[in-house]
Amino acid sequence: MSNSWIQAKMPEFVRDTFRDFCLAGSALEEQFETFDRERSVSFEVLNDLIGTAMNKGLLWRLKDTAHLLFRNTKEDPLSGRFLDWGLGYIFHEAFKLREDAYQNLNYAPLFSNLRGKDIALQESSIGQDFVQVVEQTEESMEREISRIRFIIARCRKLLPLFLRDHKENALLGRLLYSQNHLIREVFRDEYEYLVETIYEEEPEILYVLAARSLRMGGWMEKAIDATKQAYKLNPKNPKVLQEKEIVDNWTKRVKV
Fold it and tell me: What are phi and psi of 51, to 5 degrees?
């Protein structure tokens, strides 16, 4: 891939990395909450999230896109270096968790059924040592989940610091608008920090950029809604008024 192509695709890489981080974070946390309750996770879900070299899953694509984004950002911010490492770490730790989930799914029930059978036999005594190893799988899964949760939490703090240099990215604004429920779910009480860090004193710009991107894509009804939200936040901002004038003129033409 040429550097000029990578630079041209930067707005998309920013959007895709942030989107996939939120999607992956939501899916992983669902599995982690299941583990908290039931001491197990779904091998099938983790397998789909990771995928294979020939059919990459969400986590694999996130890792690859993150490498392209953070290793080719011209300013080379420190936040990007940490995020590059952190998102790669999540992928590799999830890889280990998937293997443990497979062991837990296929071998733990087998040894559980054999526990206490024919204990007088020599091989039964030796086999009990295998049971101890299998039982350690759950402890290993707990450690892996704890590490992934820790890195995700740190990435939630780093991403706003990186994204504030991309606050003019219309694709990012559109994502924050259209996938707001998902982003709030992942960032929880840090959502306000996310928006304030990126857009500083002008949170309405999020909706202006979203409206502009939606309008350019032909999604006028959604563009109107985004503009209304921008106007509600700051009816005096010239950029808000400019976007409002454009969508208002469109609405008048449609009614005529």
Answer: 75, -155
**pLDDT tens digits, one per residue of 18-73:** 999 999 999 999 999 999 999 999 999 999 999 999 999 999 999 999 999 999 99
Which residue has tokens 């024919």? 118
DSSP labels, 143-201: HHHHHHHHHHHHHHHHHHHHHGGGTT-HHHHHHHHHTHHHHHHHHGGGHHHHHHHHHTT
Tokens representing 4 are 């000029």
Count of alpha carbons within 13 angstroms of residue 134, beta-carbon side: 19
CA atoms within 13 A on the CB side of 49: 28
* Amino acid identity for residue 155 in this structure: C
Q: How many Å apart are CA 210 and CA 203, to the nearest integer?
A: 12
Whether the pTM exceeds 0.85: the reply is: yes
Residue type, position 215, single letter = R
Give CA angle at 182 (80, 62), nearest 5°. 40
Reduced to 3 states (helix: H, G, I; strand: E, B; else coil), residue 114 is helix
Q: What is the number of other CB atoms lying within 10 angstroms of the CB of residue 63? A: 22
Asked whether 155 and 45 are in contact (CB, 8 A), the reply is: no
- Residue of 90, 112, 89, 100 whose CA lies nearest to 39: 100
Each residue's pLDDT tens digit, 159-203: 999 999 999 999 999 999 999 999 999 999 999 999 999 999 999
Query: Six-digit token pair at 23?
Result: 């999607």
